[in-house]
């Protein structure tokens, strides 16, 4: 399905000759997929190594202290997500993407050279800002290019690329750390990814804001509010007032709450059970690998069967997987749990983004995506604090069990509150 601007659109200030559709924009779409894999790789350099660095190099013996890097990352990324949509509407998508890569340049140096834990916190604040700009912008640019009919598939490819990048780098960094030590080897990967991502973004990425204008000129919104809304109105609709948007926002926050738990505490739990760094690296990689690859299926599936029940099912599957982690004490059980956790997250992650696109009007969609991603990545910070405090007080298995219950409960909220037919009510005139 494609869509081009017409004479009437030209009178509205819409650029002439712009075509929407995955097939029609495939080279640029594929480039953005590759760039988001590099964005994910930049994050993946930390997944295996940083919790071990906190424990073995900086001797942070309380979980809450060790998780401060995730708290810093989550707060920085969440806040930047919110502003990324507004900035991309005001200045264009490409400048925001390039700025995100430029901001990331000091991160590997800080991680490699940092003599105190404060340097690691600073690196994660900078990384969070960078990820908020780069990842948010690739999401919006793919939505711009493909139009409404293949939005779930587009988000599946976007998130699959990002989290396969996370998984591959987590696995590679684990092996590098086992062979050469925790620093500097694993973080040299991140430096290479930043250089390549910046170069591709500057030289080859094209602006896509005009594609959103074409869609807006031909858009029949699910929502009563079409056209311009203030930033505050968009935030309120996305966060509280709209049944579907607010359900999506809370589910996204809880999803990343449990991901923050997995990122910060799973490697420590596995190490305490006597697993080698190589096996910890495998477990740290399998979860995002299944998550990433699964989205190649679940994103397009949500276009056909709808968003709601994939989200509900995915949150419940994640809760079951976390319960297995809490109860388990062997590599085999944890491997099965990691696979199941990845599968549940794959059901949810691209589906939530596509659902935002179903409801939000193209004129304010980028800002709605930013508000959603504010809540979603705020889950990193909530997860770091909650799981750290629970782990300090009651141990890691109890912390995991509590988060498992919260995750399943979030799925039930979606089942009760979210509309089930939003994906059917987005159309073009």
From TrEMBL:
PROSITE patterns linked to this entry: MFS, SUGAR_TRANSPORT_1
Compartments in which it is found: Cell membrane
Gene Ontology cellular-component annotations: plasma membrane
UniProt keyword Electron transport present: no
Pfam families in the cross-refs: MFS_1
Membrane topology: Multi-pass membrane protein
Major facilitator superfamily (MFS) profile domain segment(s): 28-422
A GO term, aspect molecular function: transmembrane transporter activity
Transmembrane region(s): 26-43, 63-84, 96-113, 119-140, 160-178, 184-205, 309-327, 333-353, 396-416
UniProt keyword annotations, A-Z: Cell membrane, Membrane, Transmembrane, Transmembrane helix, Transport
Coarse class of the protein's main subcellular location: membrane
PANTHER family referenced in this protein's UniProt entry, alphabetically: INTEGRAL MEMBRANE TRANSPORT PROTEIN, RESISTANCE PROTEIN MDTM, PUTATIVE-RELATED-RELATED
Protein name according to UniProt: MFS transporter
Record organism: Cryobacterium cheniae
């Amino acid at each position: 399905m494609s869509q081009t601007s017409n004479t009437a659109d030209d009178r509205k200030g819409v650029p002439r000759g712009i075509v929407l559709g995955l097939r029609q924009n495939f080279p640029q779409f594929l480039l953005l997929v590759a760039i988001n894999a590099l964005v994910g790789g930049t994050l993946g350099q930390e997944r295996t190594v940083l919790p071990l660095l906190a424990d073995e190099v900086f001797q942070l013996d309380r979980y809450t202290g060790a998780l401060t890097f995730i708290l810093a990352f989550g707060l920085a990324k969440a806040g930047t997500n919110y502003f990324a949509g507004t900035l991309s509407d005001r200045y264009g998508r490409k400048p925001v993407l390039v700025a995100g890569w430029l901001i990331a340049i000091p991160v590997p140096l800080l991680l490699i050279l940092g003599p105190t834990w404060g340097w690691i916190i600073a690196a994660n604040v900078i990384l969070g800002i960078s990820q908020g700009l780069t990842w948010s912008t690739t999401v919006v640019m793919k939505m711009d290019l493909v139009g409404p009919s293949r939005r779930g598939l587009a988000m599946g490819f976007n998130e699959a690329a990002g989290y396969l990048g996370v998984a591959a780098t987590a696995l590679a960094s684990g092996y590098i750390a086992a062979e050469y030590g925790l620093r500097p080897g694993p973080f040299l990967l991140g430096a290479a990814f930043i250089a390549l991502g910046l170069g591709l973004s500057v030289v080859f990425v094209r602006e896509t804001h005009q594609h959103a204008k074409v869609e807006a000129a031909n858009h029949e919104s699910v929502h009563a509010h079409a056209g311009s809304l203030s930033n505050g109105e968009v935030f309120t609709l996305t966060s509280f007032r709209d049944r579907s948007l607010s359900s999506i926002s809370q589910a996204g926050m809880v999803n990343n709450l449990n991901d923050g738990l997995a990122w910060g505490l799973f490697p420590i739990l596995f190490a305490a059970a006597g697993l080698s760094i190589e096996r910890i690296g495998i477990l740290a990689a399998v979860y995002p690998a299944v998550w990433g690859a699964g989205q190649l299926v679940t994103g397009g599936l949500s276009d056909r069967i709808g968003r709601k029940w994939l989200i509900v099912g995915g949150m419940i599957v994640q809760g079951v997987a976390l319960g297995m982690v809490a109860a388990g004490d062997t590599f085999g059980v944890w491997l099965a749990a990691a696979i199941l956790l990845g599968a549940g997250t794959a059901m949810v992650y691209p589906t939530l983004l596509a659902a935002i696109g179903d409801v939000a009007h193209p004129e304010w969609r980028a800002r709605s995506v930013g508000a959603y991603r504010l809540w979603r990545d705020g889950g990193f910070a909530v997860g770091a604090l909650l799981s750290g405090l629970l782990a300090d007080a009651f141990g890691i298995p109890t912390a995991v069990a509590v988060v498992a219950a919260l995750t399943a409960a979030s799925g039930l909220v979606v089942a009760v509150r979210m509309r089930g037919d939003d994906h059917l009510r987005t159309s073009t005139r």
